[in-house]
Structure formats: C-alpha cells, structure tokens
Amino acid sequence: MLVQPYLMFDGRCEEAIEFYRRAVGAETTMLMRFKDNPEPTPPGMVPPGSENKVMHAAMKIGDSVVMATDGGCQQKAAFEGFSLTLTVPTEAEADKRFNALAEGGQVRMPLTKTFFSPRFGMLQDKFGVGWMVIVAH
C-alpha cells in the first residue's frame, strides 16, 4: 500500500512545480494539461480558458512522489490540517531547503535545535502548503 499527497493548486500548479524544482529539487515525472485529456472534460469542471492548466502532474522529491493539479482553477487553494515533512541528512541541507521553501511564505517555527533533532523548523510556503524540515539522526 502507498499513500501519496495530491496537492490542488487551483490555477497555480505550474508555478508551484517550478518553485519546488528550485526549492527542493523536485523533478517533474509527468504533466498533463486539460487540453490533452483523451476524454472530454465534464462541463463546469474547469472555467473556459483553462485548457492549458495542469490536469495532473507528478513530482519526484527525493524518494517520494507528490502529485498535483490546478483543479478547478478558481485561485482559491487552501492547504489546512497537514504539513509535508522534508527529512534531510545535514544541518546545511536543512538551512538551504528551509530558506528556499520560506521564500515568499511564512516561517511558523525557525530552524532550531530540538530534543529530537539537531535542526527542525516549520513554515508555510507561498502557496499555503505547510512544511516541516528536519535533520534525521
């Protein structure tokens, strides 16, 4: 069994993919636009003019795959009640990734030493996605 996050960026998916490419080294392994759907898009699913928006994408981040979409393209994405955790091997890597993810976002807990990690911090990126960055022991 496999559980994978599926993030709905509601019109900003392509921008998010590029941001995660720079911030955490995400590699796009699949991207399909609404216009490339082999079946007709159901009426009302996406607003007119959204044909070039992302219907489905997959990004490889380290050993994980995060899936994403533009969804309904309404510019109302809301990411609440969860965070993605990025586990890195070194404090330097934690600093680099945390700072990149925090660009344009909001730091919830600065990177610091804790009883469970030499470096741990929490933030919300510029898309509203929550992240926790931790150095594994």
Automatic annotation (TrEMBL):
Per the database record, which ranges form the PhnB-like domain? 4-134
**Pfam families from the entry?**
3-dmu-9_3-mt (PF06983)
Organism superkingdom: Bacteria
Descriptive protein name: VOC family protein
